[in-house]
User: Fold these one by one.
Assistant:
Number 1:
Amino acid sequence: MSSMIAMKEFADRRRRLMEQMAPDSIALLPAAPERTRNRDVLHPYRQDSDFQYLTGFGEPDAVLALIPGREHGEAVLFCKERNPEKELWDGFLVGPEGAIERYGLDDAFPISDIDDILPGMIEGRSRIYFPLGRDAAFDHQVMEWVKTIRSKVRTGAHPPGEFVALEHLLHELRLFKSPAEIKVMARAGQISAQAHRNAMLRARQGGHEYNLEATLLHTFMEHGARSTAYPSIVGGGANGCILHYIVNQAPLKDGDLVLIDAGCELECYASDITRTFPVNGRFSPEQRALYEVVLAAQLAAIEAVRPGNHWNRPHEAALNVLTQGLIDLGLLSGTLDDALEEEAYRPFFMHRTGHWLGLDVHDVGDYRVGDAWRELEPGMVLTVEPGLYVAPDNTRVDARWRGIGIRIEDDVVVTKDGCRVLTDDAPKTVADIEALMAG
Ligand code: GLY
Ligand code: MN
Ligand code: MN
């Protein structure tokens, strides 16, 4: 297990979570289950992001218990026991001893003993934090442990009476990335940027959308990022107007743009990049005109990512530029203020300008605090991804614009005095894209 994030950092995260828990409480968190793909074939295993954040422990069939003030150790892991015969078939298991030695847990037990041991740890604690309502099987399991305690009330046992969602405390921690996390995310961004460059070069040979997808996957894997952060979107021509297009089967056409939204996952951290470029390496006048509007909107939005600005400021900045651009090109009429007021841009831009990014591609963390947009603070990571999509059947605009879909997306970390773009290595000016593809 080589990780860019030190084991001490995982211990720090557990400590900070426990500092916020009520006294006399316990937190319980299960590892992600294995999932069947078909018959006896499983999907590649991916740890639950919350579990990953608190342990770095990559196996299924595990439960983390955080028990502030417990004499024999506050961070307790239940996991599979080592088993030479099983390991011969399925690979190395860390085991309870290994969990303590290698992962810095305070105490560990076989998962097969959890029903005997855990009720005793819960007993006497008044509150249980757990991912309430996320997984019906785990909800049920928690209640079974509570029932075990209730069955012993006549011997003086105290069952817990409060059940609280763990996410509120935990996701606030996850929203702020440490220097080590930012390092991993920057590396993921670099690998993904390289993949987009390679896909641009590959496009010149023509072929199908999946040929570009193959190039992306190849580049991710070559750099040790064995998974994507989400299914890659490779949309040629009007397919670029379908926001979640992942069919990726169509032939690439000379004269079309292709929109690629793809990012690798590294140590469970996501990257998320979109680039749009001409299959033949040269933008047509219409493609270029719309592209310059989206790029200007994206740069204006990135400019608005700074501490003190609220979450919606980058979106507002992008809307202003996109809407003015649509008016200037004749796709919308009237004044900017009226068009913004009426949301006249909506047929061309129907999504938000970004989202939090981290262990999940659409990462956790509140966007609003009470009635107000949240203020940006150093350590937050977000995407900036405006676009313009002219539907192929939009008869309200001149035919030459139809079927053009463009999005430009980068990953950005808020710094002390502004922001830093983590995905700069993927070219995005018309000149840089055309120069790369001509090379
Ligand atoms: N790739 C998902 C997104 O851009 O939000
Ligand atoms: Mn994306
Ligand atoms: Mn995104």
Number 2:
Amino acid sequence: MARRKLVAGNWKMNGSRAALTELDAIAQAAATRPGVDVAVALPATLIAPAAERAPALSIGAEDVHAADHGAHTGCISAAMVKEAGARFSIVGHSERRADQGETDADVKAKAEALHRHGLHAIVCVGETLDEREAGHAEAVVTAQIAGSLPDGASGDWCSIAYEPVWAIGTGRTPTADDVAAMHGAIRAKLRELIGGEADRLRILYGGSVTPDNARELLHVADVDGALVGGASLTAAKFVPVIAAAR
Ligand code: 13P
């Protein structure tokens, strides 16, 4: 089954209004590659100015709260990021699972909140180095999928990002064979959970994707795109990753 590739950036806690000039060339690269979906997740304060500056680009959030509103000081809801111009959000990034103690159940509820508001969810999973070295990577990741996948998950509004924690920001990546094995295991788990719809969900790879390794990683079996941190901060690095997707 042919799935369109999705190349998504994640600026994390980086960037400023001045840095939004980078989006101009990224939007242009997206417009000239109609076969690839391009998206950029930004700090909440940059969503509105980015959506205004690059209306054709899919701008998103890096996290949302599971509730629509309420007494949750410092949090932002799916409805709020949508009003600011977001079309999607990342949920369950390993940095939030680690720093904010987010559980699979939290991640699932956040993804369902996004769906309630018509936004796309990118649900992140990934094992730590200890878990991989102990031989538990596939068990850990498939359990995260089972716990984090939103009810009624459909390829129309949900994607998965496999990001091994030890590959994030380290310059280390799994081998193409390891990526193929994990993406295959994720696809098999999705089939078990949602049947044929599993073939419509995109499974992105994330963790030290660069212009140098993007072509190889993006063409591994069952890799339907990339979630890119550091290399998404500048057009000079992100545009070649987009170009490598096809
Ligand atoms: P890096 O591409 O900087 O390794 O980050 C990956 C990531 O965490 C994207 O969500």
